[in-house]
Amino acid sequence: MSSPEAEIDELLKAVRASPTYLNLWSTYKRIKGISLERPKDQQKLLRLAVIGSSTLEPLAACIDVMARLEGFHVETFVGGFNTYRQEALATTSDMYKSRPDIVILCVDLWSMLDQKFVPSFVKLGPADRDASGRRAVEEIVSIAKTLVGNCSAMVVTNNFVVPVYTPFGVVDNKQMPGLRRFVTDSNEALEDALRSESRAFIFDLDSVAGDFGKSHITNWNTYYRGSVPFSEDFTVVLASEYMRYVRSLKGRSKKCIVLDLDNTLWGGVVGEDGYEGIKLANTYPGIEYVDFQRALLGLYNRGVILALNSKNNPDDVQRVIREHPYQVLREEHFAAVRINWQSKTQNIKELAEEIGIGLDSMVFIDDNPHERELMRQAFPEVLVPEWPKNPHLYRQSLEQLKVFDVLSLTKEDLERGAMYAGRRKRAQSEASAASLEDFLRTLELKIHVSFADDFTTPRVVQLIGKTNQFNVTTRRYTDAEVVKLRDSADSSVYCMQVTDKFGDEGLVGVAIVRKKAKEWLIDSFLMSCRVIGRSAETAFLARIVADAKKAKVGRVLGEFIPTKKNPPAQDFYERHGFKKMGQTEQGVVSWVLDLSKQTVKVPEWIRLIEG
Amino acid sequence: MAGREEKLNEIISKILLLRADQLDDSIRRKDYEPWDSMAHLVLISEVENEFGVFFTDDEVVEIWTLADLRRVLATKF
Lengths: 611, 77
Hints:
Chain A is an alpha/beta fold and about 600 residues long. Chain A is about 40% helix and about 20% strand. In chain A, helix 2 crosses helix 3 (about 55-70). In chain A, about 40% of the residues are buried. Chain B is an all-alpha fold. Helix content of chain B is about 55%, strand content about 0%. In chain B, helix 1 packs antiparallel against helix 2 (about 35-50).
């Protein structure tokens, strides 16, 4: 008999080739019979809870297996039929005992209304209709808030499907409110009520159902026989949409699009067809490429990094990018560029290093199937979407990728493009400086260290969730946990902002300190890889050490927990004079700084601002 | 006919978690643990979807063995 892991891999291989409802369901049931140990890496563990007003095991099964296909170890809790109120209200419920990372609350609007509500809707007065809608929304909001309050999970509740059928017929939108308006109003009220709950999200079921085709979202046989709310094929689509939340929560979202040029950003080959000969225009033909570039610009503007990887003559390309009247993406939009004749796999490796992100955060878009295959074979961790031959479908293909989600758009997301432009200039200036210190002196670095507050906490949580490289312990904390640490007298959450003459990097560092009378333990210390190499971490640590001295603490302790990705932080404590205290079998090293003998100084080229 | 038999066996084996060589017509709901009410619901709807047929409520309730399923399905063509 093979090992449980091998057995599961075999099952997943089969379902990956054909992820139908039948195969997903069967795989879920088979895997449930295999006992597996939990992974050591918390980021690989997904605890999922699905509760609601109907039979939701099929939906939970599909999400469970899809998450496994993306490398998660999944523990799934499925609530019983219509038991969501008890699960949410009783703090000792089985659902809370499962300690979920994510709770999917799936409730149907009609289940909360009187059974005669729809048939009598035409006869109800506006006041009665409003009151019923308000009650239903209030109930769902109160359940969602209860869930947020009672556990640290992310809560995802769906909105309601605006019905295609209405008893009013064509005058549904002449009546106030018509049945459809009644539902859209309820959806709007739901959004407004949960907007300020940072851990509650609304799954846009109406929009997903509309895309799928609302008359196909229910299989009336399973609906009546077993209260299964969604048809088989729609369940699969829903599960893949719910996966977007899982990916964002677990730091699996993609951060960067690496683009080919010829026949990808414009039509034709610039080296052969020439500057005037390529297809790129505000009219047909050529508008499809402009449209695709605009869609990319939209992603860039909300924080997705763009890079170029093309086999071309750099001069030909430069002319198009700088001068072509219809080129949308200009030099300033690309964080890094490789235009040469070496292999694209070598190029993408260099791009990842230059930008400072992992290959697993990258998406590679190329019209050439041969290049795509080479990339997939060399780097399976790079997402290489199948790309249509027809350029009219480029924009739609990009919009259907759905892998760039973030859970909150921070100031840093919106300004990321400008930061990378600043970094390119910085790199040019570094190349011309005589020594690294000379270069750092010219940067006019300012480091602002403060304690996390309501305003900065969303970004702090975001950084804790996604920083992999310069991260000494890679401990992930939820929004609620950070707030608790921040507000407790026994711990502090520090954050660091970095500015230099080329631009504002924003909030790029976080440290969590657990305080005892005689010693402080640095529980977490992490910094965005964007600012590695400027000694910002030294200034940040100096502030913490200075605070420890002020508090009359004898020593500061640190830990280093090695992961595949954090070698950049490996020598952090040693570099700053900490002494090694010990090492566990798993490679966890503990460090100590004796404050009676040692300290950490702010580098002279950095101005430390305290707030 | 052979294609239909094959497809039906595939559905049964996937839902009832049986290997192809374990598909015994005498396997009986209630005696065989994986064939619970949820599996029955999924089994019936997958067969319906695959073959474009509909099972009445009485038929759904009276399918007790794999032989029953095969017999009732045969009446649909």
